[in-house]
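If you are new to this repository, start here. Below is one unmodified record pulled from the training split, so you can see the exact layout before writing a loader.
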Amino acid sequence: MAVSVPSDRSVTSTISRPATPSEPASPAAPASPASPDAPAAAGGPVYTAEPQIPTGKFTTATEVKPILTATKSSWVAVREYDGRDLVYVTQIMAWRCGLVALRFSVNGEETADWQLPPCHEDTAAPNALTPDDGLPYRSYPLGSVEQVNVLVVYDDLTADEATFQRNQVLMP
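And here is the target side for that same chain:
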């Protein structure tokens, strides 16, 4: 089955950070199915569902979706470093083998694909990031990142999205 996930998805959840470190984080909303009836975005990507046979190596949506759902408040981080805002997606990259797409936007700009590195299926840790996989962050002018929106599309063609405000994900 092939499904197109339009870039204007309306499924959104806002992540709230606890007021104090002793309070638990808000539970994440479950992933929502990508609509097979949604029209393809003009020139938008079309994804094909992959078999959901658990491998024990965390390479399917069945295996990684519970982890990414539970850690949704950690999907992104903003760090001020060397006069720049760095936006990290390390948490998502660490479980990318169960994904077909990562879409990302900053400050309400148009959502665009963030190229996922390949899975290293021939290793003991397929989700590990290697030096050849590139950096798990993007750089912006200092103080410019106010909001980050992330859409993940799992390889079973369900999708989940979150919007983060700077103060919620700014690293000390």
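Two things worth knowing about this chain: The longest strand covers residues 99-106. The CA atoms of residues 4 and 105 lie 19 Å apart.
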